[in-house]
Design goal:
Blueprint lengths: L4 H11 L2 E5 L9 E7 L12 E6 L7 E2 L5 E8 L1 E6 L10 E6 L4 E4 L6 E3 L6 E7 L7 E4 L3 E4 H11 L8
Length: about 170
């Protein structure tokens, strides 16, 4: 299988203002590498909208989540399945939809969009992401629990191994 990873990493390392790996302490493989191509990772009001290059190394956490800002994502290489709530879903539980997005897919999402990204085994995904202004905090949607703010989810995961707490 042909991979774009070496070329994309080479270009990103030369044009980005920041490279940031998201790795949980208990996991050996990073979840995501993020290069900031424009703006600041946590841009203040009135600053240029941040543009990121994302390299997904693996799937999201098991629970669906939302975001602090609206965003537009262009898939450059690889792809992913996006899981979203279906009619009847509520507070982290219920039916879901699953859809494939491959190279060339342009995806626009509001901040409150609830989803989970799943990378097929042995694959990765590269995207360019343009974010809008920060609108809110964000978090995860846990079965039998509902909404869990991201900092609480992270603390639970570090303490119990599961972000929803207690292995829910």
């Amino acid at each position: 299988m042909l991979t774009c990873t070496p070329l994309l990493e080479w270009v990103a390392d030369r044009v980005a203002t920041e490279r940031f790996k998201i790795t949980r302490a208990w996991e050996a493989v990073p979840y995501l590498t993020r290069w900031t191509l424009r703006g600041a990772r946590y841009g203040a009001a009135g600053e240029a909208r941040p543009v990121f290059l994302h390299h997904f190394h693996r799937s999201d956490a098991d629970e669906m989540h939302d975001h602090p800002w609206p965003f537009t994502s262009l898939i450059l290489a690889g792809g992913y399945f996006e899981t979203t709530p279906a009619p009847g879903w509520a507070n982290g539980s219920g039916p879901v939809r699953r859809r494939w997005y491959g190279p060339g897919s342009l995806i626009r999402r509001p901040a409150h969009w609830i989803h989970r990204v799943e990378i097929p085994a042995g694959r990765d995904c590269w995207t360019v992401v343009l974010t809008g202004p920060k609108e809110r905090s964000w978090g995860f949607w846990c079965p039998a629990v509902g909404y869990v703010p991201w900092r609480v989810h992270l603390a639970n995961a570090e303490r119990t191994g599961h972000g929803c707490g207690g292995g829910a």
